[in-house]
Amino acid sequence: DAGVIQSPRHEVTEMGQEVTLRCKPISGHNSLFWYRQTMMRGLELLIYFNNNVPIDDSGMPEDRFSAKMPNASFSTLKIQPSEPRDSAVYFCASTGTGEGYGYTFGSGTRLTVV
Amino acid sequence: AQRVTQPEKLLSVFKGAPVELKCNYSYSGSPELFWYVQYSRQRLQLLLRHISRESIKGFTADLNKGETSFHLKKPFAQEEDSAMYYCALSGLSGGYQKVTFGTGTKLQVIP
Hints:
The complex is a heterodimer of chains A (114) and B (111). With 114 residues, chain A is an all-beta fold. In chain A, 0% of the residues lie in helices and 54% in strands.
């Protein structure tokens, strides 16, 4: 298995533009999580899905952020419009229910909004 | 509610010195605990989990339910151990398995 795959690895965009981050979880994993990592705030859970259904989106900072999981093998995190303070590394992680093995993380997307 | 506390943001030790990264948790049920490591500009990787009672790269962690702690230890620090370390707890929340991370501790091993 190639692991959790995120794209793009790096994204530089101008303030006000729409940004879409993508994630492909490990095949067979039924839970998917989006995290944001910054120096100031550490690792923050934004939203997580179970069986493609959003379970908890209380960590999504503002309405500018939205996430979807149209099927078991794909999820997107969208920021519209983007702002400089959104600059961070965004990680996707997946796990299977009851495994007890914790998460498998993707390599992350480093977003810079200028 | 489940909570993980890592009281130290930065821990600096000399090479060869013992290391202890502290982690305390709060959870009403029976938790599953993990340590993750993140080397510079890389993804988080699972280091070890309490259920397997393993030692990885010389690190060990023992779950102490009485003290609700899961401290990470290594007897002799190496320079390559310098990284961010996150303690995490997996538990049921609203009927779903959810993992909560601590804020992380940066370990700096001084040559």
